[in-house]
Amino acid sequence: MAIKGAKTYRNPSYLQSSTGIFMFFCSWGIWWSFFSIWLTSPAPKGMGMTAAQQGDIYSVNSLVTLFIMFFYGIIQDNLGIKRRLVIVVSCIAACVGPFAQFVYKPLLLAGGTTKFIGVLLGSIVLSAGFMAGCSLIEAITERYSRHFGFEYGQSRAWGSFGYAIVALIAGPLFNIDMKWNFWLGSLFGVGMLCVYLFWRPAEQQEELKKEADPNAPRTNPTAKEMISVLGMGSLWALIIFMLFTNTFYTVFDQQMFPSYYKSLFATPAQGAEWYSILNAAEVFCESAMMGVVPVIMDHIGVRNSLLLGAVTMFLRIGLCGVFHDPVMISVVKMFHAIETPLFCLPAFRYFTLHYDTKLSATLYMVGFQIASQVGQVIMSHPLGSLRDALGPQKTFFTISGIVLLALIYGFFVIKRDDQQVGGDPFIRVRDRKKAEAQGEAIQAEAASDQLPA
Fold it and tell me: 425 preceded by cis ω (within 30°)?
């Protein structure tokens, strides 16, 4: 770690990684935050889909994403800290505006077989550039944080901050024309491409030279090691937990909540504007919590932080079914600000704690992101149909009940921080203080023994 002792804000790799992840979330958030509303809003502002049809879009997107994500993890673990794959993702993000206006929307509006082609093509482009691209950007940022001595959560917070900024303007842009959301996404994608293409801190170049040395110790996993990930029983136990918890980040928060929240207001335009403000406020708080959650995790541990995230999700989704006015729903929505960091940051630390750190990208993709995508493939259409049939409240209670069952399951299967430590050990603050106190006591006793009688 070439600059571990340097101040974070002077760390070139921290600045580069934070700017890159900031640009990515700006490029994604400007259109993704209103993607669900765009699909279900009546023409000409939206695509006029039902909740079930919208669920089909999300299911196909998730199905394609999980395949792309798996290969992203394998490729990036093989690349180490090289940026080739990230540059490809940046190029796709830079093209989202013309693709959405001239290809995606016309195909979706055409109907029949042409519409299906549009759904499939859209799932490939949007997944490769954003849904799968998100986990790739997060994985390489986390890898840089371990190599170049900065806190991943602090860098990831800039992603949430970027999302919050664009969420403020996403609503007004949507009320004009959704195409401007996509085109602004392209503009931020160009900025992201410039960051990853041209900004290369000296310590990263030195590390790449070391990795290129044929006599240097191997830091990248073999193909056998990466495939062996699928045979880990403990990983599959965690996948089931993620399948019925983190899945609902998209199924509930992106597929269902935006259109429900908009319906609470007098007009769709007013609902879109207030959703934009609420979304921005929540993600601003989320970016702050990215810095707070590592402190929480330091005190209660990795396992308990994951379980606390599930508790927060259970309460948030359930209370959205209890309350019916926009003020209380807005208050409940703010629970999301702590929930996302409680899943994202402990998940990464769980993998680097219990498994070989060389496999961190593959493990994160498979155990965290792909598990969530599988859940979305399975649940998006049925829950969309359930909402069409029973309404939002009963659907929210159903989702909340599923999360509660997953929480109980997770209490028994998620490993404690001192179990199966196959990577970097995690030591809580109290344990560090206890060890320091014992060390001081031993030193004091040794010093007293050396004193003359």
Answer: no
- 133-158: pLDDT as tens digits: 988 898 899 889 888 888 888 888 89
What is the C-alpha separation between 158 and 308, in angstroms, rounded? Answer: 23
Whole-angstrom Cα distance, residue 333 to residue 317? 9
pLDDT tens-digit map of 242-253: 888 887 877 788
Q: What is the pLDDT of residue 311?
A: 94
CA distance 276 to 273: 5
Q: pTM of the full predicted structure?
A: 0.75
Q: In angstroms, rounded to a whole number, what is the distance separating the alpha carbons of residues 431 and 191?
A: 44
Task: Say how many CA atoms lie within 13 Å of 7 toward its Cβ.
Answer: 2
Given a contact cutoff of 8 angstroms between Cβ atoms, the answer to whether 402 and 395 are in contact is: no
What confidence tens digit (pLDDT) does each residue in 209-233 have? 877 666 655 555 665 666 666 677 7
Do 196 and 86 touch, CB atoms closer than 8 A? yes
Alpha-carbon torsion 123, 92, 142, 71, what sign? Answer: positive
- State how far the alpha carbon of 314 is from the alpha carbons of 250, 318, 396, in Å: 15, 6, 10
